[in-house]
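User: Hi! I have a protein structure encoded as tokens and I'd like to know what sequence might fold into it. I'm fairly new to this, so please keep things simple.
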């Protein structure tokens, strides 16, 4: 029987590539994007792929959508926490709103999805979480303190949960990609003003 994977943030980059890879290997895929109408042709003709709308910082929507996914597929084998973005710029000029949003997306959104699937995995006594961290959670770079910090948090959360959930047959794996030319660099939160005269030279 073919297995099912749930993947967040699948309209570009690693998320899109993973949907195509899993589906081509015969898996069923529950894929999420923030806004389906913005991606009318995404995974068109791929009958193994079902697309859901999900903003991972909307916890009520996380609950609603994950319930629907479980009801639709009956059994989810793997959850890939992929969705994230990068706040880039000097920390001094980043607002607390920007910093909070960075952690709310990259850390708390991931936690909300993980929490939503734990009971299902525990019931099945089987399941795998694959959490996207970053090479910046091995050694962080300047001007991405919040992004790298959020990815260190993903690393720590994954390490802890891996031990916590092991007795229930649930595994947690962490991915630490290096730099890849995905759309993440076209969607940077540049609000953390790199043109600030104090930082402009070093930031450039
Ligand atoms: N590319 C790299 O160099 C690199 C390096 C290290 C780690 N990573 C990690 O790899 C993962 C995938 O990134 P990528 O490089 O493939 O970038 P990407 O092409 O920008 O893909 C990121 C995906 O996450 C979604 N997303 C962002 N915020 C979201 C939110 N609040 N709710 C729901 N979806 C949201 C994006 O949707 P929208 O299009 O709607 O924004 C997009 O589908 C991320 O966890 C990233 O941190 C990437």
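Assistant: Happy to help. Inverse folding works backwards from shape to sequence: for each of the 204 positions I chose a residue that suits the local structure. Here it is:
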């Amino acid at each position: 029987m073919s297995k099912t994977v749930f993947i967040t943030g699948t309209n570009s980059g690693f998320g899109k590539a993973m949907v195509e890879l899993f589906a081509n290997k015969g898996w069923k895929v529950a894929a999420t994007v923030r806004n389906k109408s913005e991606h009318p042709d995404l995974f068109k003709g791929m009958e193994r792929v079902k697309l859901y709308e999900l903003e991972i910082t909307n916890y009520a929507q996380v609950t609603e959508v994950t319930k629907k996914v479980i009801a639709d597929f009956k059994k989810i084998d793997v959850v890939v926490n992929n969705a994230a973005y990068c706040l880039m710029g000097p920390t001094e000029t980043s607002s607390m709103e920007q910093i909070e949003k960075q952690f709310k997306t990259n850390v708390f959104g991931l936690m909300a999805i993980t929490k939503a699937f734990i009971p299902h995995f525990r019931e099945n006594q089987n399941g795998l979480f694959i959490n996207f961290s970053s090479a910046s959670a091995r050694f962080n770079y300047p001007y991405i303190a919040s992004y790298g910090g959020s990815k260190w948090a993903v690393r720590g959360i994954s390490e802890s949960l891996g031990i916590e959930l092991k007795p229930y047959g649930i595994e947690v794996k962490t991915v630490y990609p290096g730099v890849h030319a995905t759309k993440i660099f076209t969607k940077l939160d540049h609000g953390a003003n790199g043109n600030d005269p104090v930082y402009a030279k070093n930031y450039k």
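A useful reference point when you look it over: The pocket of NAP is lined by residues 8-15, 34, 54-57, 82-85, 105, 109, 132, 134-135, 177, 179-180, 182-184, 187 (CB under 6 Å). Feel free to ask if any position seems puzzling.
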